[in-house]
Amino acid sequence: MMKQNKSNRVAVRSKLTAVSSRPVNPGTIHSFTGLDHAMALHSVHVIFYYKEKLFSYFDLDPFRVCLSETLSLYPPVTGRIVRREVDGEWEVKCNDAGVRVVKATVATTLDEWLATADGAEERLLTAWDDMPHGDSSSWSPYRIQVRTPIRPALSLSF
After folding, report:
1. Domains in the chain: boundaries
2. What is the Cα–Cα distance from 69 to 72, expressed in whole angstroms?
3. What's the pLDDT score for residue 154?
4. What span, in angstroms and rounded, lies between the C-alpha atoms of 156 and 62?
5. Which fold would CATH assign to domain 9-22+44-74+97-157?
6. Beta-ladder partners of 105
7. Which of 56, 99, 118, 136 places its Cα 20 to 30 Å from the Cα of 23?
8. Contact (CB, 8 A) for 131 and 81
9. Rounded Cα distance, 136 and 93, in Å
10. How confident is the model at residue 130 (pLDDT cuts 50, 70, 90)?
11. Residue 146 is inside which H or E element, if any?
């Protein structure tokens, strides 16, 4: 097999939004907790790898339906992080904007990926987008990225 340039093995194919199956009450706001404030400079990037024997085929549409039902149970996930004008503290302003779902492909097998990918390349598999400076009202802090095919496998990151 011809050796590929590692920087182009991950390709984003589409960005979609999964929304709650029930609208959120207008004006719903959740203040950050002490733990939220303590974690402000930290983030967690999780990647789950699944071999083909668990998923022979992955269809994104049923996943989005299930995700929409789940989002209706926890409205803060569909919100946007904004600063309060009064004191500058962060809060989640709930809305119906949804959670970003990114679909990507990876041009290698799972075994080859696990043996050769470095930290910088693995970061391409995480569903991450830096928070913009200034107006953050359109930035979704919660993302899910689905990658197929890491033949023979599927990976999800949150």
Report:
1. 9-22+44-74+97-157
2. 5
3. 58
4. 15
5. Chloramphenicol Acetyltransferase (3.30.559)
6. 11
7. 136
8. yes
9. 11
10. confident
11. strand 143-147
